[in-house]
Amino acid sequence: MELLFLGTGAGIPAKTRNVTCTALKLLEERKAVWLFDCGEATQHQILHTTIKPRKIEKIFITHMHGDHVYGLPGLLGSRSFQGGEDELTIYGPSGIKAFVNATLSATQTHLTYPLHIIEIEEGIVFEDETFQVEARRVSHGIPAYGYRVVEKDVPGALKAEDLKKIGVKPGPLYQKLKNGETVTLEDGRMIDGTDYLEPPKKGRIVAFSGDTRLCENITRLAKNADVLVHEATFGKEDAELAYNYYHSTTEQAAKTAQEAGAKRLILTHISARYQGEESLKQLLKEARDIFPLTEAAHDFFSFPIDRTL
């Protein structure tokens, strides 16, 4: 599991920061990539990475402002032109279906893969045997959502060497034991599979704020998260400006991570008004003064999410 930031700017593209898109690479977990938002030129950013568009399985849109969705039509079309065949699902607020369908129709773009568009409300928006994704409304100028991605606990590995020591040879019984079942051997012995399993591996949690003022729902989404990705459009001295434009400051992002009990915080969606190394160092310091385990993302910043975090 790895985060790769494809765009970390706010509002409009800049020379050093493209508009918003964050990739959650789940190549080991499900041989797939999920995107969170898809700002203009996201597909151009992808060209500078190892991401293959056909591996993009899901796209979660936080809200319908252009800097978060204008990259969708081009990416969807290119994925088709490049031979993508696997299903792709887009999740987002009301309006996302009309936007995508209208652009594809007007440009007569015919996709070679199944596309599903789900207009979400608060609650669990996706769940299978390995992951769950929850969405909550956040405080922005238009309907907007933050997301919480929860990896389900991974069952512990089978203690194969211990089984061999007691005379249980590899075979069909191993799968039953790995499932925690009790099996009866040919000699009449009964073996409880749970006695021969390593402890389960704890699933990881990643939270995404989207664009928002300081709000309680982000704290809920980020509770005990391994990583919180939080917008920090403004520095602490611009708190009034942040409030007026429905955004957050560095300090507010840090306080949210602290209150949520998150393990790490990554700042993104940074205004172009903050240029140069010194300015960015100051933004990072403002957050670290409250929450020391903070990073400030830049375009193509990569952050592996280890189970040991």
UniProtKB/TrEMBL annotation:
Q: Which reaction does it catalyse?
A: Endonucleolytic cleavage of RNA, removing extra 3' nucleotides from tRNA precursor, generating 3' termini of tRNAs. A 3'-hydroxy group is left at the tRNA terminus and a 5'-phosphoryl group is left at the trailer molecule
Instruction: List positions binding Zn(2+) 1.
Output: 63, 65, 140, 211
Pfam family name, one: Anti-Pycsar_Apyc1
Q: Which CDD domains match?
A: RNaseZ_ZiPD-like_MBL-fold (cd07717)
Keyword annotations for this protein?
Endonuclease, Hydrolase, Metal-binding, Nuclease, tRNA processing, Zinc
Q: Where is the active site?
A: 67
Q: What does this protein do?
A: Zinc phosphodiesterase, which displays some tRNA 3'-processing endonuclease activity. Probably involved in tRNA maturation, by removing a 3'-trailer from precursor tRNA.
Record's family?
A: Belongs to the RNase Z family.
Q: What is this protein called?
A: Ribonuclease Z
Q: Which organism is it from?
A: Bacillus altitudinis
